[in-house]
Automatic annotation (TrEMBL):
Binds 1 zinc ion per subunit. PROSITE patterns: ENGC_GTPASE, G_CP. Its EC number is 3.6.1.-. This is Small ribosomal subunit biogenesis GTPase RsgA. Residues 72-221 form the EngC GTPase domain. Pfam families: RsgA_GTPase, RsgA_N. Its cofactor is Zn(2+). The gene is rsgA. Monomer. Associates with 30S ribosomal subunit, binds 16S rRNA.
Amino acid sequence: MAFGMIVKALSGFYYVQNEDGLFQCRGRGNFRKRKIKPLVGDKVEFEAENRTDGYILDVLERKNELIRPPIANVDQALLVFSAKEPEFSTFLLDKFLVHIEANEIEPIIVISKSDLLTDDELASMKVYQKQYEAIGYTVLLTTVDDEAKVNEILSYTAKHITVVAGQSGVGKSSLLNVLKPELAIETNQISSHLGRGKHTTRHVELIPIGNGLIADTPGFSSLDFVDMEVEDLSLYFPEMSSRHSNCKFRGCTHTSEPKCAIREALTQGEIYKHRYQNYLQFLDEIKNQKRRY
């Protein structure tokens, strides 16, 4: 018996890495009955007679897990969004941030393709950058070939498990190719008919880059609020979380209750309007999902 970490999952096999190398394993037969699905990033107990014929015996306790991408024990997330092609979306960014915050993962926002912006568009993007930095997030505005930014990203990812996530076609694979050129990950142009990138990543894999492990992850179609409660949503907006104890009513949803500290901060310009509007939309999504279930 030995211990290791799953670094790749592909076609029913789990590839487990430890100090002795890489072992191809299958999951134990009773995992399905016990509703255990091993994930990339899992620390596992396994046994293997050779490099290609091993079995995972047990999955150790996780500190967190994501559904899309399916990965566990993540320290931080590089959230890659493009400035253009596809258009930058605070709605999508905030949706990612809420899910990342809910899993206690440190987000680093990377806005790519800034070289495609006009001077006016770049000025507008820098306003967004300052807003998110004021909330407390790290925001890197970059082009794919910006060497200084690439080195900065590598400094953030050192000694961590980092997931790279974001909308399809924003340049995630291109970014990984710059961070580690020998990867030569396939990248595709935006489909002009759909206005989104083609799915070029087929599986989740932890790749050693610099002094850390980075997961290249498939594009996504939606992020659902399945396990989130209405009263918890504001906890995942740092600028609301720090204020909600000042609301008059416990369990305040910050929509129409009197003496709400969040709406007061909104009127004072201390909470950005687009963040609050996105919060309201997410609130509706959670309520609608609860009705469905």
